Amino acid sequence: MSVRPLLALLLLVFTSSGLLYAAEPSGAEIMQGARERHDHFPYTFERQSMILVDANGSRNVRRMRRFTRIEDDGQLNHLLVFDYPREIAGVALRLRRFPDGKVENDLYLPAYGAQLKESAAHSRGATFLGSDFTVRDLTPEVIEDYHYRREDDLVIDDIEHFVVEATPKGQAIALATGYGMRRLFIRKENLFPIRIDYYDRHERLFKRETRHDIRQVDGKMWRSNMILMENFRKQHRSLIKIDHRIFSIDYVPETHFEDAWVLENRHLPGADLTQPAATDETSNSASEQNNNEPGSEPVE
After folding, report:
1. pTM above 0.90, yes or no
2. Coil, strand or helix: which one is 5?
3. Domain presence at residue 285
């Protein structure tokens, strides 16, 4: 082999993500590769079940719908609507992240009438409705908000993982998230994050997220159908199971993120006739109508 091809081989490796990296990719490059592979589709609708388990083993089940839409200018719109149990049915939690980095959260509580309240999720580390998740835990990683540092690789269950430390850029981000640092464990074979350790401002581990039932859903894009969050301090766990997932703009129109859609109770089940029912039949139809988009993914 001549010198030139040998140098090229030593300097570059082709990862399974299809991206060309330096022989030792940095933490930022790993995170960028993960985003380009798994977070590129902008329209997602999900039906979810959440199971809360306390220190005594008591369980509390909730059901909700999740709408996520990313605009062409990068604005992120995220909405959670709770349908069960009856005492929280109709509660809606909305997050909007604007292209300039500004984040707004608001909460709709039907019992308080037609008004949106600033969500407690703005507060440092605040979780929502008794779960162990913050709103930001459930939204796509905003790479521009963090400094990333690659740590030593780790083998977990005979699978090689990148390990990346993420620290907030600036006090505002740190206050909004409530985390001093996170450590992400990312499978090398598909660049999918399967575990996130959360540390407080004193670098003490207090929470861990693990992702299970990981499946390839479209091309090289992967998704997890179960997300477990364990709070070690409270001895409390929250498990989210994805019951149904659809990638289609039809299920997340712009109107769903406007004030009126919630304040006029059009977000309640059966109230909005423009939203198709999440059945296998309508899912397939939606897929056929959007030829440039992946279709629905019923979750077993």
Report:
1. no
2. helix
3. yes
Cis status, amide bond into 85, omega within 30 of 0: yes
Distance CA 11, CA 267 (A): 53
Q: Which are the contacts of 184, defined by CB distance < 8 A and separation ≥ 6?
A: 31, 163, 164, 165, 166, 193, 195, 196
8 A C-beta contact, residue 29 and residue 217: no
Which position has the token pair 């030139």? 4
Alpha carbon distance 254, 261 (integer Å): 10
DSSP labels, 49-95: EEEEE-TT--EEEEEEEEEEEE-TT--EEEEEEEEESGGGTT-EEEE
Measure the CA–CA gap between 224 and 239, rounded to whole angstroms. Answer: 12
Which distant-in-sequence residues (6+ apart) come within 8 Å of 110 by Cβ?
89, 90, 91, 265
Task: Please give the structure tokens belonging to residue 59.
Answer: 């369980």
Q: What is the pLDDT of residues 191-248, one digit of tens each?
A: 999 999 999 989 999 999 999 999 998 888 999 999 999 999 999 999 999 999 999 9
Burial profile 198-219: b = 16 or more Cβ within 10 angstroms, e = fewer = bbbeeeeebbbbebeeeeebee
Could you give the number of structural domains in the chain? 1
Is 229 contained in some domain?
yes
In a domain? residue 115: yes
Q: How many residues does the chain have?
A: 300
